[in-house]
Amino acid sequence: MRPDTHLAPHRLRTAELRAEADAYRRAARVRRRRDLRGWTLVAAGLRPAVTPRTAVAVPRAL
Predict the structure, then answer these.
(1) Burial annotation 17-29 (CB, 10 A radius, 16+ → b, else e)
(2) What is the pTM of this model?
(3) Is residue 5 in a domain?
(4) Number of domains within the chain
(5) How far apart are alpha carbons 29 and 35 in whole angstroms?
(6) What would the pLDDT profile of 3-19 be if each residue is shown by its tens digit?
(7) Domain assignment present for 37
(8) Which end of the chain is more exposed for a tag (fewer CB within 10 A), N or C?
(9) Three-class secondary structure assignment of the chain
């Protein structure tokens, strides 16, 4: 058997795996951005809830 014939399926599989890895990396990058955006919104939403509010004295009318 010629070496080229034997190596052809391996080369095809290598190309498939590289394409799959590239697609996964792109999807992971988008997922990471979406996660960061979500946590930023959570942090922004929690900021007003966590800040201490001071009580304001209201004078009473007699």
Answers:
(1) eeeeeeeeeeeee
(2) 0.46
(3) yes
(4) 1
(5) 10
(6) 788 899 999 999 999 99
(7) yes
(8) C
(9) CCHHHHHHHHHHHHHHHHHHHHHHHHHHHHHHHHHHHHHHHHHHHHHHHHCCCCCCCCCCCC
